[in-house]
Amino acid sequence: MASVTISGIGSGIDFGAIRDAIINQRAVPINQLRTRVSQYNGRVDALKELNLMLATLTTSVKDLTNAELGTGRTATAADPAIASVTATGAAGLGTLNLNVTRLATSFTQATASFASTDAPVLAGGASSATFQLRLGGAADGPEITIDSSNNTLAGLRDAINAADAGVSASIIDLNGDGTQQQLVLSSNETGSRGRVELAETSATGTGTALNIRSLNPIDGDVTKLDALFSINGLEIVRSSNNIADAVSGLNITLKKAGTTSVDVTRSAEVAEKLEAFVTAYNAIQDFVGAQYRKDGEGRPTGILAGDPLLRGIQKQLSSIIGMESTANGGPLTALSQIGIELSKTGKLEFDKDVLNEQLAANAGDVTALLRGRTSSDTGIFQGAYTVANDLSDNITGTVQTAITGYEATVKSMNTTIDKRMDALNSYRDILTRRFAAADAAIGQLNGQGTAIGNLMKALTASNRD
Fold first, then answer.
1. Rounded distance, CA 201 to CA 138, Å?
2. How many domains in the chain?
3. Tens of pLDDT along 128-160?
4. Contact 113, 174 (CB under 8 A)
5. CATH of the domain at 127
6. At how many degrees (to 10) do helices 380-392 and 308-321 cross?
């Protein structure tokens, strides 16, 4: 259908302005709906922000119910250049004296010199020889064969490496002119148990001719490959510099010879987890408080101001702080006893000195208050988790339910707006056609009136003549 316009020329009446005024008046309810949609979308965004904060709070609360909470240990070597130390919950608290006499090293051997890497290694005219790569003094090990296909120093190197027996072979040019080539064998693991030795199992004399000697240790005493150290005066030998079986709960990495002390202390995880809880709780209180911050006329500025949901959340969160735990298996019953109290502003204050005093007196009582002494006991934060999770769950939580409700309402209102706009646009077209017709009709009447007026003037003039 061709578009219809209103010229207004024929009638002299601005029918376009009249039509627009009518349309604008009928659009008022639609604009009101749009305003509500904008407000609801703003609430949805604000509630999503709040729900993220509640999810953070829920995570912090859940962390405080962990059965391992409070069992962490921190180990520190006074001289980290001598050793580094980490600890598990099995480590006892206290100080150890560590004296490192010798580090564990890898067994290294070298053969006699050969004139080139292609020089044959088989002795006494033998056509082949067999060897074993024996780990840690074992009676046997992976076998290699040297024959016409690989009877060179390079061939022996390659055969050893291909065996993948815990030893690496390389050729060293002593003089740099290719005339003094020695095969060097380096065990991959440290200590006497990690050493790998090349032993001939045939009777060709090739092993003797290779004249393998120990480079580390120089005197061939393989016991010197092991780490030698003492803890509190007790001498200990290990094949590795990474020691996990000397002191229960401690992992010690030896770095160099020397003496240092090792302090094992209780980790700060309890304080850190409580601090995270306090921070998350206060962030929510700040968010809620910002909703009720007033403008110059005393009106709250937050889009959620007046929403009863906020007050309900505040009330439930406050209930966490007021909880008492009488079935946790310990003498402590309230968070105030470990330094957490609700201030007059509605935010939490955390006195870590109070917590540390309680931890020093009996750390088990503190963790019992938080999560229960045993699996059958109940601490404060089991109940707190129920409250927080009921608020923040991204499917059934209180806030998510409100978000879902607002989103459903917005969707319904947008559908209504679309339908009303379609109807309004149709009505606009109808008005346009009607006013265009009226404009044309009035213009035609005006034209006829002008013609009649001219005729009357002409008749009047004729009668006068």
1. 13
2. 3
3. 999 999 999 999 999 999 999 999 999 999 999
4. yes
5. 2.60.40
6. 170
Whole-structure pTM over 0.85, yes or no? no
Largest alpha-carbon pair distance within the chain? Answer: 162
φ/ψ of residue 130, rounded to 5? -115, 145
Q: Over the stretch 321-346, which tens digit does the pLDDT of each residue have? A: 888 888 999 999 999 999 999 998 88
323 occurs within a structural domain: yes
CB under 8 Å to 410, separation ≥6 — which residues?
37, 40, 41, 44
Statement to judge: residues 189 and 245 lie in one domain: no
- Residues 202, 284, single domain; the answer is no
Residues with Cβ within 8 Å of 426's Cβ and at least 6 positions away in sequence, in order, are none
∠ Cα 352 355 357 (to 5°): 110
Structural domain including 94 reads 73-104+227-266
| 249 and 202 within one domain | no
Cα separation, 461 vs 465, in Å, equals 7
* Cβ(156)–Cβ(183) below 8 Å: yes
Report the phi/psi class of residue 456: left, alpha or beta, with left for phi > 0 and alpha for psi in -120 to 50.
alpha
Same domain, 395 and 276: yes
| Pairwise CA distance, residues 211 & 206, whole Å | 9
